[in-house]
Amino acid sequence: MRTTPAVKALGALAHEHRLALYRLLVETGPDGLSAGVIADRLRVPPSSLTFHTQALVRAGLVAQRRVGRQLIYAADFAAMNDLVVYLTENCCGQGKVACTPACNPALPSAAARGLAKRRSA
Amino acid sequence: MRTTPAVKALGALAHEHRLALYRLLVETGPDGLSAGVIADRLRVPPSSLTFHTQALVRAGLVAQRRVGRQLIYAADFAAMNDLVVYLTENCCGQGKVACTPACNPALPSAAARGLAKRRSA
DNA sequence: CCGATAATTCGACTAAAGTCGAATATATTG
DNA sequence: CAATATATTCGACTTTAGTCGAATTATCGG
Question: Rounded to an integer, what distance in angstroms lies between the CA atom of residue A34 and that of residue A72?
Answer without folding.
Answer: 4
